[in-house]
Amino acid sequence: MATTTKIDIPQSAEHISPYWVQQVLQKDLPGVTITDVHVKGSISQGKGIMSDIIAFDAVGTRNGASQRYSLVAKLTDFERPLKVLKQSIKDWQIKLDAHEIKFYSEAVPELLSVANTERKSEPWNEDDETHPVANPLWFIPKCYFAATDPSSMVSVRVMDNLKSQGFSIKANGQPLSREEMMLAAGALAQLHGLSHHLELRLGVRLSEKYDCIMTVSDLSAMMTVSADHYQAAVKEFAATFPDQADLVARLEKLDLQPHFSEKDPRLVLNHADCYVNNIMFKYAEDVPTDVRLVDWQTPRYQPPTYELAMLFVCNASWDVFHNHRDAILAHYHHKLQNILGTNESSALQSYTLEQLKADFKADCLRGVITRFIRLMILPADPDLLRILQEIHEWGVI
């Protein structure tokens, strides 16, 4: 992945030229020549407000053969938040974009190195980039270039156009089906397992290695800032369900601060924003077959069950949460243990399914808090009420 500051950062779609695209692609695609670029315009999906995602096709040659690349440039947009929020969040945008730049530039290459080491030797067609051996970080969008212009603070990430490959987010914030949850949980298992391998290889905590990863102190500060927003969301929930006074009273008293030790040996890299607008699926005749996790602006170092709690509380219907939770958690655990293997002894490798289920129930509190902070995007509905009532029965709320 190219990160050299010699490559200019485009300020708008007009600056995406053939020469610029050729510079961006040359590290991953040596010998490529780009002769033309067709900019299609903004394809920003969901309700994301901080970036303008510009789709474009690049045409050229490589090794004597004609090539066409379908790509996107994710550019910082300082104007878009003002259309949704009452005040500018420019400083916060810059910080989050810096996290994503460093994630793609620093963490992803090392995760890829671990994945290449851990994967099993298996024959495949070298032209098939979708094969899991050819693309061991299949759940992360391919990023060719990630950098920030120090004068304007506009960031750019050039990635494969997932939409052109048949990926899409769920329309209108619909909950994920059992099959979609299985795919998303499998992707998280891959992320958590590879990050654990990387930490064992480095011999140092990932939060100490990468300053783009938010730690427990960062999360505490974020929760302090988010406290008013959370309480406003609880009031909105109370207005939607006026007969739930006891539940609302309990929600109002929840301790928003994270409670885990950074010395906990189970801690792994989390996507930490894994809700419906940041999960893209590919389908074959309405059956989900593949998944990508997008928007890596808030990676965190925390227990895997924090991530799973968010996945369920923010994305699952009542039916999936109640009737298919155990099967999805078992699928996650199976995938995680397959990735971890038996070559090394660690806390995660001895992590039983029953321990995972118990920790998940306890950590569902984090999923509840996250869901309420996102209530503007994920409105309260009867399914959320039933999920909260079940979590209350566990003694968590």
TrEMBL record:
- CHK kinase-like domain: which residues? 157-342
Q: Which domain of life is it from?
A: Eukaryota
Q: Which SUPFAM superfamilies match?
A: Protein kinase-like (PK-like) (SSF56112)
Question: Can you name this protein?
Answer: Uncharacterized protein LOC109486309
